[in-house]
Amino acid sequence: MSVNRETALREISDIVLPDGRTLEKADLVRAFSVDGDTVRFVLEVADAGVARALAPVEAEAKRRLSAMPGVEKVQIVMTAPAGKPQAQPHGHPVRSSGAAPSLQIGRHPTAQAGPQPIPGVKSIIAIGSGKGGVGKSTVTSNLAVALARAGRRVGLLDADIYGPSQPRMMGVSGRPASPDGQHIEPLHAHGVTVMSIGLMLKEGEAVVWRGPMLMGAMQQMLQQVNWGELDVLLIDLPPGTGDVQLSLCQKAAVDGAIIVSTPQDVALLDARRAIDMFNKLKAPVLGLVENMSTYVCPNCGHEAHLFGHGGVAAEARDLGLPFLGELPLELETRLAGDSGRPVALGSGVTADAYARLAQRLVDQGLA
Ligand SMILES: Nc1ncnc2c1ncn2[C@@H]1O[C@H](COP(=O)(O)OP(=O)(O)OP(=O)(O)O)[C@@H](O)[C@H]1O
C-alpha cells in the first residue's frame, strides 16, 4: 500500500534548517507527490550557496521518508526560482525591488499541515451546487451584498475556475495589483472585498490546470490575497464535486457550506452528491437554498413553477438539514446580475429574502 501524501509531508515538516526555521515554516517544498512507492518533491532555494547549506536537510528528509512503510524511492531536486531573488542578510530570499508586479496564479501547492484559518478572517463559508447553472454565483453575490448591508465585513472569493462570473455580477474589472509580487490586493464593490480567479487570467483564456495546479491556485487565492479583517469570506465554488472543492477543504478551515439547488429532480440528485462530498470532507453543511422556485408573470400575476416547487425543502427535511429559504425566478435578478448591481442592493421580495438569509447566518455566529 502506498504512503499517504499528507502523512509523508508531515513527516518532514519539522526538520530544522540552519537558520532555525522548520522546513514547513520556511515554505521551500514544492510539487510534493507520492506516486506508488516513490516520493518526489522540489526544494526551492535561493541560490547555490543556500543549496549547499541545505544538503543536511535534504539528507534528513530522504532518511525520514525512506524509513516510512511503503516508500521505496525518494527523489528530491533542489532548484532556484526564476527571477534571481537576492539573499537578505539573514539568508531569506526576497524579490528584487522595482520588479514589475508579476504574481502568477496557478502553481504547484506548497507544504501545509492540514486546513488553515486565513489570518483576519473569522468565518469561511463555501457556496456549492451539484449542477451547473442553478444560480450559485447569483446567490453568492447577493448574499455577500446582503451581509454587507447588515453591517458585516464580507469577502467574496470567486473560485469558479471554469466559469468565473463574479467580476460581471459584482461589477468589478481590471487586474488586481500585486505591488510586492507576493500578495494580491483584492477589489472592492458594494461594500464587499472581491477577488476572482477570472481577474488574474487574460480575457478568453481557458484554465487547463489539473489537480496540483488547481490546489496551488486555491492556496494562493486564500493565503496571498490581502483579505484584511473580515467577519466572513464567502467562496463561490464551481459546480460539482471536483479538485477545487477538495483543495479548498484541504487548505482552508471551512466553517460551513451552503448548497444551492433548483427544485428540479436532476438538480436535487446532484445536490445530494455535493452534500455527500462536503460530509466526506468534514465541512458542515449549513443548509439548502432553493433558487428559481417560483415565477410570477409581471403582466398577469400568474404564479408558475417552472422547475417544480418545494423540492429543496423536502430534500432538506429528508436529509435532516436546515432549509435556508427560497428565491424566485425573475427577470430583475438576472438583469441585476448582468449589470454588476446584485438585486439584494435594492428593495422588494427578493432583497428581503436575501436579507433574511444573511440575518440567519449572523444570528448563528457564522457571519
Ligand atoms: N433567481 C433567478 N432569477 C433569474 N435569473 C437567475 C436567477 N438565478 C440565477 N439566474 C441567472 O441564471 C444564470 C446562471 O446563474 P449563475 O451563474 O448564478 O449560476 P451558477 O450555478 O453559478 O452557474 P455555473 O454553473 O456557471 O457556476 C445567470 O444568467 C443568472 O443571472
TrEMBL record:
Pfam families from the UniProt entry: FeS_assembly_P (PF01883), ParA (PF10609)
Classification via CDD domains: Mrp_NBP35
Binding residues annotated for ATP, in chain numbering: G130, K131, G132, G133, V134, G135, K136, S137
SUPFAM superfamilies linked: Fe-S cluster assembly (FSCA) domain-like, P-loop containing nucleoside triphosphate hydrolases
Any one Gene Ontology molecular-function term assigned to this protein's record: ATP binding
All residue ranges annotated as the MIP18 family-like domain in the record: 9-75
Keywords: ATP-binding, Hydrolase, Iron, Iron-sulfur, Metal-binding, Nucleotide-binding
Region (Disordered): 83-117
Coiled-coil region: none
Function: Binds and transfers iron-sulfur (Fe-S) clusters to target apoproteins. Can hydrolyze ATP.
Membership in a protein family: In the C-terminal section; belongs to the Mrp/NBP35 ATP-binding proteins family.
Oligomeric form and interacting partners: Homodimer.
HAMAP family: Mrp_NBP35
Identification of the protein by name: Iron-sulfur cluster carrier protein
Species, as recorded: Paracoccus aerius
